[in-house]
Write a structure and sequence with these properties.
The protein is 26% helix and 16% strand. It is α+β, with helices and mostly antiparallel strands and 179 residues long.
Length: 179
Amino acid sequence: MSQPTPVGGPVRRRSIGSWIVRLLAYAGLFLLVLTLAAVARFLIVTHDRFPGYKVEVAIGGTGAGKEPRPLQVGFGSVDITPDLSDPARPVWMAGFSQNRSATNIHDPLSADALVIDNGHARVGIVALDSIGFFHDDVIRVRQRVPADWKLDYVVVCSTHNHSTPDLMGLWGPSPFRSG
């Protein structure tokens, strides 16, 4: 008496070698897709977000040495401490670990500005109590400076402080959610 044939035809048994080959093929396909995704992400992140933007620094041109003028300097400061009063909108702190929201304010944060004018060129410098103020942000600041300020060059820098709000989006509530 013979065994009945299963529905769909006889059962074929595969050797362990064919399973390994199939597993390697899937792993190779997965690595190819992962590599293509990484290359696409790299191209998106590194493309020029400000095409045609350039900075020309020509401070102290030909007239600066021949015709001295009085040096003028101005200072300013503004409080940039975030508001912590709304628990529904936590302020995530930069550095050290995830899920570190601000609970109180130890010291206020500020943006401190200095303008130096030698009569030939005017330079503005701003120092921010923050970490992660990117070059794209600096370009946006330079583009928003009013023309009537007559600044020839603007420098924006930030302190490297791990007790300031996360401007980079790295230290949110989890590794998978931005701060």
